[in-house]
Amino acid sequence: SSGSAETKTWANAKSYCENLSLAGIDDWRLPDVYEGHGLINIEESSNPHSFKSVFPNTGSYAWSLTDYAADSQLAWFFPLKTARVSNDRRDIGDYSRVRCFRPGPY
User: Fold this and answer.
1) Closest Cα partner for 31 from 11, 14, 51?
2) SS3 11
3) Which residues contact residue 90 at a Cβ distance below 8 angstroms, ignoring those fewer than 6 apart?
4) Is the preceding omega at residue 31 within 30 degrees of 0, hence cis?
5) How many whole angstroms separate alpha carbon 45 and alpha carbon 68?
6) pLDDT tens, 45-63?
7) Parallel, antiparallel, or unpaired: how do β-strands 86-89 and 61-67 relate?
């Protein structure tokens, strides 16, 4: 794998993370919307370890595990370049990327 993010539907993204085994670790999952948003450093220009620096071809958005409470067909996604979270239909996979997550310790 080149390390580039793939676009997937929400269900495929969730399954991908749940089945991921990387570096001997197999408890990966989609981040919730708050965890995902917390991965992003908006002040990227001053941080050489920012998300964009580590993953330069990451795309614009990534799915979160968080359901959109008002409509079960929607899920929240988080931005990979800005501070604006939003939601979309779970069956859309044309622009939402996959970033698997596991809580620390690392």
Assistant:
1) 14
2) helix
3) 9, 10, 11, 73, 74, 75
4) no
5) 32
6) 555 555 566 666 666 788 8
7) unpaired
